[in-house]
Every structure is written in structure tokens, then in C-alpha cells.
Amino acid sequence: MREIISVRGGRRLTGTVDVDGSKNSALACLAAACLVTDGGTVVLENIPAISDVAVMCDIIKSLGKDVSFSDGRISVSGEFQSVDVPKALAGKIRGSMYFLGVLAATMGELRCGFPGGDQIGERPIDIHLAGLKKMGVDCEVCDGIVEGRVTDRLIESRIYLRYPSVGATCNLMLAASRAQGRTIIENAAREPEIVDLGNLLSAMGVRVSGAGTDRITVTGTDVVRGGIFYEIIADRIEAGVFAIATAICGGKVRLHNIILYHSFPLISLLGECGVRVEEDDNSILIESDGRLHPFKVEMMPFPGVATDLQPAVAVMASCTEGGLSTIVDLVFQNRFQYIEELRHMGARIEHMGNTLKIRGGVSLHGCRIAGNDIRAVSALLLAGLAAEGVTEIEGVEHLRRGYPQIDAKLRELGADVEIRQLAE
Ligand code: UD1
């Protein structure tokens, strides 16, 4: 059954949102939970109920392990019975890439369908493969399947990443956990999700230092412990979407359960736009009269403003009172398919290379539009909240991949939003 999300714009937002656990941390930590050698169970807490997590669980089950998920808590136990990550499952999420590292480390052999995820331009895995090769994995890609074999054991190595890829950094940390000796990852990504993965691996008995800096050292071990409970970090992207929703609609919203440090880049941008942000230990209060100033921003690896917020930030630029805003995405070159949909709503956006120039002082109007990735659909939803009239958005399955109960959370704040099923 196809679904659309329908929004009547123009409502101010007030109230409190409990931010869920991070999608990207959940995927990396679930992969780490598969590294256990002592038969113990790893229990992860604060896991968001989203479809990407469900797919990750299906992959782990298809490999023979036991997984149970209820009430924000996932337990992973048992042994791998297979080294084949089915193409159909791998192609649904980007997080399937982590089984390259995990299977190389635990089984010495892997066959993994090419990872999927958002359609945001080319998403190669050459940095992952180069690092794994350096660690002793003999791997090649053939017909959309990555095949790899470790001749003896993963070996001590120093790996320089040609770009600080989040996925490659996590993948190599996972593989290094069971390698012989020390793996040093230079030019590593510094995202909070990497620190989270490093903390979980440390709790499992792996020596990890430098996570959160550009040099990470992982000392492999034969004994990776289970029998632990670990709570993953809050989702800074979900927090960002609600913060921007409040900025553009006007109102006063408290975001609970966030990690302030992870939201600083966006908080600083909101400040430039004229939004008041009051910081507390694990919450922020956003207050906006909906009158926003134009701005310039570059989406960059952490601690820059996250590329995953680029589409939402573009909506914010369209909602400024006037003037020209500039957005440059230095991470993904082609994350711009959504701008045509925003233009249908009245946005004035010029697109050159990886740069957007967006004119404020326009009024967006509701219409029927569609998005084809998680962050695009959430941005179109934001545009609908700010638009006059009713906006109907196709692509709800993408929202379900990354945002737990986003419709219900927005209704709690006073938005007029509903998901409807369409007769085929
Ligand atoms: C992760 C996140 C995604 C986020 C992105 C950047 C997950 C599941 N997804 O994706 O939400 O937008 O980080 O913060 O955690 N690249 C290569 N070769 C590679 C790997 C990457 O050229 O082998 C390039 C990519 O095309 C892109 C850039 O490096 O231009 C960054 O990608 P990367 O950090 O790897 O993103 P992901 O880990 O895929």
C-alpha cells in the first residue's frame, strides 16, 4: 500500500520532543555486536524503531545470529552460520557495508551485496576496500557483490584514508578489533557516531584510542566480550530537523535527550539566522518568531554542519525574510534532487556544482511532491510545514527509514500532519 504524508502549513510549534537514538550509530553498533567471541549477548539501548534498523536486524539473522528488538532495546547473540549478505538486503541500506569488516574479522571470508542507502550521487566503497586490502583481505567486486578472503589473519597496519569517510573509518575499526596487533587509521572521520562505536568496542574489551580525532588506534584481541549493555547516542540529525522546523514555523520547542556538543554546528547556524537557542545539559530550547536572516554555510565532515541536514537547511534558506543564502556541500556532490520539488512549491534556487544560492522572501505554497531519500523527504515535510495550503509528499517509506514517529512527534507540537494510505 502506497502512502503519502499530508501537511497543512502555517502552524506555530510548541512543546517538547524526545529525540531518539542515532540511526547511524545504531547501524555501526549493531555490526560491532556481531564481533563477540565469548558467546555473550550484547544489548544495545536507545535504538530507534526505524526500518533501516529492521533491515540491519534481518541481515544479522540471515547470517545465523539471534536478534530480538523491543522497546528501544536490541539483543544480539549466537554465532554466524553464513558469510553471505544477501544482495537484496545489502542493497536496502548503507549500513550493510559494515559486514565487510565484521565478516573479514570473524569468519575470514565474505560475500556481500553492494551496500545501498540514499540515492545521493555516486557512493563508492574504494576507501573501505583499500583499507581492508592493507589489513590482509583479498577482495574484489564482481556483479554487484563484494567477495573477500583473509589468507591467514588480519594483520597490523597503518592506513591513510584519502578522504575521512565515516563508513570506511567504522568498517576498519570493526575489522581491526580482531586483527593481529595494532591498526592505525590516519585521516579518520571524527563524527560522533565513530566515538560511539569506539566506546562500545572498548566496553567489549577492544583497546581503542583516538576515536573523535583524525588518528584512531585499535589494538585487536582474540577475546571480544559480550554480556554488556550499551546505550547509543542521540540522533543529531533528527534533533536538527525539529530545530529547523521550529525555526521556520516560529514557536518554542524543547529538544530533550540530545548531546549538546553534537548539535553545536547547527546551533551556531540557527543563531546567525536570528533564532534563540537556550542550552542546557541534555536539552535545548529553540525559540523563533519565524523571521529568519539569510546565511552562508558549508556542509562539512564533523564538526562542520552535517551534510545530512543540507536539504533541511535549504528549506530554511527559502524561509528567510529576504536576501540570498549560499549553501555548499563539501561531502556529497549530488545531494540536490529535492530542489526541483522545492521549486514546484515556489522556492527560488540556483544550483551550480555543489553550491546552492537560495533567495528568501518567497512564500512557499502547498502542492503534490515526491522525495527519494530520507533527508530529502524530511526536508520536503519541513517545506510543507512552512507553506500556505496543503502539501502532499510521496516517499513516506524513506521517512520510516530514518525518523521514528515523525508525524506523531510533529502533531504533538501542534503541526497539522497525517500519513494516509493511497488506494492503488
Ligand atoms: C555516512 C552516513 C550518512 C552521512 C555520511 C557523511 C551511515 C549509514 N551513513 O555515510 O548518513 O551522510 O556518512 O556524514 O552512517 N567516499 C568515497 N569512497 C568511499 C567512501 C566514501 O569516495 O569508499 C566519498 C563519498 O562518495 C562521499 C564522501 O566520501 O562523497 C563521504 O562519504 P562517507 O563519509 O563514506 O559516507 P557514508 O559512510 O556512506
If you had to describe this structure to a student in words, what would you say it looks like?
The protein has 424 residues and is α/β, with parallel strands linked by helices. It contains 14 helices and 24 strands. The protein has a four-stranded mixed beta sheet with strand order 22-23-1-24. Strands 2-15-17-16 form a four-stranded mixed beta sheet. It has a four-stranded mixed beta sheet with strand order 4-5-3-14, with helices on one face. Strand 8 (137-142) and strand 9 form a beta hairpin. Helix 1 packs parallel to helix 2 (51-62), helix 6 (166-176) runs parallel beside helix 7 (192-203) and helix 10 runs parallel beside helix 12. The N and C termini lie close together (7 Å). Uridine-diphosphate-N-acetylglucosamine binds next to helix 1, helix 5 and helix 6.
Give the gist of this structure:
It contains 14 helices and 24 strands. The chain has 424 residues and is of the alpha/beta class. The structure holds uridine-diphosphate-N-acetylglucosamine.
List keywords for this structure.
alpha/beta; 4-stranded mixed sheet; 14 helices; 32% helix; elongated; binds uridine-diphosphate-N-acetylglucosamine
**Major β-sheet annotation:** 4 strands, mixed
What fraction of residues sit in β-strands?
25-35%
Number of strands: 24
**Low-confidence segments, ≥5 residues, pLDDT <50?**
none
Report how far the terminal alpha carbons are from each other: 7 Å
Bound molecules: uridine-diphosphate-N-acetylglucosamine
What overall geometry do the principal axes of the alpha carbons give?
Answer: elongated
Going across the biggest sheet, name each strand in turn: 22-23-1-24
